Amino acid sequence: MNSATGAKAKIGLIGLGLMGRPMGLNLLKAGHALTVWNRTPARAEALVAAGASQAASPRAAAEACDVLITIVSDPSALQEVLWGKDGAMSGLRRGGIYIDSSTVSPALARKISAACAERGARFLDAPVTGGTWGAEKGELVFMVGGEAATLAEAEAVLGVLGKKWFHLGPNGAGQTIKLAMNLILALQVDALAEALALVGGAGIAGEKLVEVLQSSMARAAVLDVKAPLLLKGEYPPSFPLRLMHKDLGLALDLANQIGVPLPATAAAREIYSSVKGAAKEDLDYAAVMKFWKG
Ligand code: NA7
Q1: What CATH code is carried by the domain that includes residue 120?
Q2: Active-site residue numbers?
Q3: The pTM is what?
């Protein structure tokens, strides 16, 4: 099959960080021809060893593919790869599909959508949840904004990277839902850290609290994944705190634009800011516990 999104579709992947690298490996395992580009070229080594081609620029990566995927840190990184020197936007093919899985602002997603339309390319904002674990297992969940017909064509590729996708509305809708979801995750972990600080301060082992929570209405998947990290005080980055901090900022910017107050998010962001400012290394967002425990 050699359609834009068929089993042998040519894929371009820009951004080979914690998420992009395992996603690229899954695309190769599924038999897709893969062209990659990363700002730090050495990070492409594992993928090139597994059969990917390394493009000389974002533009060259876009030119070489039917479906382009980007997954870079933040809005400025994405603007750089799209509109910077030899940017990907100038290489997008007429009729091609471009999927951005970075978490950025809904406004940027709409700006990209308009630029793609001018080139005759189709765009999906498709941020993900599932972290590095989901990226490695091919079990990411995509929150998609864009045309339903474009999503239908992209499903063969999304199905290699994830198990579920939700069509949420026009371009920008995927990013809006992603920011709302991350706001909840940030507050959940912040609340857990705060409660553990209270319990610890009262001389009771944090494990006791977690044990009870697991049998209560406060039970949540985030407890299974993050409570052990908070209890041990070890925070290897799965979803880095710097990125959660960025997402809280994006949620607050959006709230400001549309006039919705987010008081709990604003308070939590200050706490994440404080930990981020003091951190000397890249830590998971579970490190919000350091606000209380240093
Ligand atoms: P990482 O592991 O921090 O990786 C970020 C990627 O973004 C990595 O490939 C970076 O390249 C790239 N990046 C960062 N800034 C730039 C600029 N200015 N230009 C080009 N490329 C850049 O993040 P994750 O993989 O965990 O997450 C990616 C996205 O998914 C993010 O939006 C999350 O919120 C969700 P580098 O290797 O540093 O040269």
Answers
A1: 3.40.50.720
A2: 178
A3: 0.95
